[in-house]
Design a protein that fits this description.
α6 crosses α15 (380-394) and α11 packs across α13. The chain folds into 2 domains: 4-157 and 383-394, ATPase, nucleotide binding domain (Nucleotidyltransferase, domain 5); 199-375, Nucleotidyltransferase, domain 5 (2-Layer Sandwich). With 399 residues, it is α/β, with parallel strands linked by helices. Helices cover 38% and strands 20% of the residues. The longest helix is centred in the last third of the chain and has 25 residues, at 294-318. Bound molecules: adenosine-5'-diphosphate, acetylphosphate and magnesium ion. Acetylphosphate (UVW) binds at residues 12-13, 97, 127, 152, 182-183, 212-214, 234. It is found in: Cytoplasm. This is Acetate kinase. One of its GO terms (cellular component) is cytosol.
Length: 399
């Protein structure tokens, strides 16, 4: 294999993240640039990019109407990427949120794979169509360019049968109505980092909290997923920016009987609930932390309460707990939110060191804390790039 470039695309719910890697003949990866278009659908969409050394390459605001939908935002950064890459990449890796029951490992995306993944779009309407749109258009224009789909659900394939179940009839379970779990590329990356940055807990029972626009927590034993707060869709579990998290199914029935149609309920649950719905102000934790409004406080209190309760449930699922890891946008950057969650976990033996927490130190727990608490920046795109090399070598596409 000679030197090649890999473009990675990660379309989240409020942002599109991208990275360009150089892959050496041995498969070693060096990041040439990374960036994101954030604030899609907000008043201030913004494109940010940095080169491999961390110097700013781009910092550009967009008018809200230029990026109020993910498709427009993808078109806007598509042009920027073509210029920045200076030529087409040799392969593209995509984060794809839902792999369903069949895709439990990264795959080369051809027309048949794409069709199977499109059938899963109703299960992740905020993500899956946006993950698949670039695969489809590149397959059409450049069918020879290898594209690898990497799944958020795949890391959770190790969950025991009990952890995959809902208390519903077997026939529905057999139809695939079960817990899948998401944010798996992030958890896989963190599992790989634990032996280096937190060797004392890497083989133990760890809760990893991926708190971003979408939020979930994973119970990991020896680096493998045994339980996730997210279930069948990316709606369940912890409260999120615009999604409610765990919600009595009776609420949905009630709205339905009250005359609200499926499309309106879907819009409500994916776009108007969570921190935004509770606060009436914003889905963005930065804005909520800066706001004196009671709604902002209510939203953050609810978020911290439900997250700490989920930690208790995940600890019970593992029969104990050896450490906690915070990651993703909120988990890596919002020290006051980490402190609110940690205060509710004092009974588990969590004591934070205020100065370390404020500095986002790698270990934010106090020296006397029974449980170590770490902050580990995630890298979903880096994980995708590694899978691209593995898959293309395995398939004989890259010698
Ligand atoms: N400095 C910060 N302080 C508090 N919250 C932050 C900060 N930076 C980012 N966030 C939060 O992280 C969220 C985005 O997380 P991220 O993991 O990038 O989301 P996604 O990939 O799902 O779009 C933002 O909506 C914001 O609430
Ligand atoms: C699955 C999910 O919620 O992803 P994101 O956090 O990128 O919205
Ligand atoms: Mg994300």
């Amino acid at each position: 294999m000679t030197g090649r470039t890999i473009l990675v695309l990660n379309a989240g719910s409020s942002s599109i993240k991208f990275q360009l890697y150089d892959a050496t003949a041995e498969g070693r990866l060096t990041r040439r640039f990374k960036g994101r278009l954030e604030g899609i659908g907000s008043a201030r969409p913004r494109l940010l990019a940095w080169d491999g050394a961390g110097a700013v390459l781009e910092d550009r605001g967009f008018r809200p109407e230029e990026a109020d939908e993910v498709e427009e935002a993808q078109a806007a950064i598509g042009g920027w990427l073509v210029g920045a890459m200076g030529g087409p990449p040799d392969a593209i890796g995509h984060r794809v949120v839902h792999g369903g029951a069949d895709y439990t490992a990264p795959v080369l995306a051809d027309a048949a794979v794409l069709a199977a993944l499109e059938a899963l779009s109703p299960l992740a309407p905020l993500h899956q169509p946006h993950n698949l749109a670039p695969i489809r258009s590149i397959l059409r224009r450049r069918p020879e360019l290898p594209q690898v789909a990497c799944f958020d659900t795949a890391f959770h394939a190790t969950m025991p049968d009990l952890a995959r179940r809902f208390a519903i009839p077997e026939a529905l379970h057999a139809r695939g109505i079960r817990r899948y779990g998401f944010h798996g590329l992030s958890y896989e990356y963190i599992a790989g980092r634990l032996p280096e940055v937190a060797p004392e807990i890497a083989r133990g029972r760890v809760i990893v909290a991926h708190l971003g626009s979408g939020c979930s927590a994973c119970a990991m034993v020896d680096g493998r997923s045994v339980q996730s707060t997210m279930g069948f869709s990316a709606l369940d579990g912890l409260p999120m920016g615009t999604r409610p998290g765990q919600l009595d199914a009776g609420v949905v029935l009630h709205l339905c009987r009250d005359g609200m149609g499926a499309a309106a309920i879907e819009h409500l649950l994916y776009h108007r609930c969570g921190l935004l719905g509770l606060s009436g102000i914003s889905a963005d934790v930065r804005e909520l932390l800066a706001s004196p409004a009671p709604g902002a406080r209510l939203a953050l209190d609810y978020f911290a309460d439900r997250t700490a309760q989920a930690f208790g449930a995940l600890a019970a699922a593992m029969g104990g707990l050896d450490g906690i890891v915070f990651t993703a946008g909120v988990g890596e950057n919002a020290a006051p939110v980490r402190a609110m969650i940690a205060a509710r976990c004092a009974w588990l033996g969590v004591v934070l060191d205020e100065a370390r927490n404020a500095a986002h130190a790698p270990r934010i727990s106090a020296d006397g804390s029974r449980l170590p608490v770490h902050v580990i920046p995630t890298d979903e795109e880096g994980m995708v790039a590694r899978h691209v090399v593995e898959v293309l070598r395995r398939e004989g596409r890259w010698a």
